[in-house]
Amino acid sequence: MKNLKRVIAIIIVVLLAFAYGHIAKLNNIYDKTVDNSKYLGTGVTEGPVEQSFICTEDTLDGVKVKTQIVGDVHGINVKYSLVDVEADKVVGEGNVDATTIKASKFYNYSFDTVNGCKGRTYKIIFENVGSTETAGVGFFYQPVTEKNTELIISDNHTEGTLILKTITNRFDFETFAVLLIFVLYIVVFMKFLYRLFK
Q1: Residues 6+ away with beta carbon under 8 Å from 87
Q2: Distances in Å between the alpha carbon of 54 and those of 14, 28, 30, 49, 146?
Q3: Of 104, 111, 58, 41, which Cα lies nearest the Cα of 82?
Q4: Per-residue pLDDT averaged across 121-143, rounded?
Q5: pLDDT tens digits, residue range 32-73?
Q6: pTM score of the predicted model
Q7: What is the enclosing helix (H) or strand (E) of 25?
Q8: What phi, psi does 76 have (nearest 5°)?
């Protein structure tokens, strides 16, 4: 009976760890070691902001971008689309109310899951809808272009890379394993304390 309880407890822990291991995996396309004091802002642009990158995951569910808020953004939207560069096809898109975006924070621009992404080149395009010269949404970028990326601001090729992370909702074995190791450590530590003070 005691062994059965242990087996059930182990199964429950593994199942919970498995569920916990399903995360929104983030992959940076920018250089995280660059000091954020060196980041530049696009400000409100007349044309779209486009960032190309090569995907390192099998699927894509969105991108997170460090976003600027300029002036009063009531009535302004951000329209975005993900383009498969090789196929020249829009494979993901969305539209967000600018008032839901927090200034100088990462914002999640999500779209329906795109499959078969690994090794393919994509371009994410952002456009302000209803903006003015003094009110709208901009994006932060580092002043260095990362390998296999290209930044275009209002049709102008720009030296730099958006502060952008790709989002992939998937099972992450590392997260799963770390949690199991942590639980095992707690169990062993508690047994040690029990024997120590028994």
Answers
A1: none
A2: 34, 11, 12, 17, 11
A3: 111
A4: 96
A5: 999 999 999 999 998 999 999 999 999 999 999 999 999 999
A6: 0.83
A7: strand 22-28
A8: -110, 140
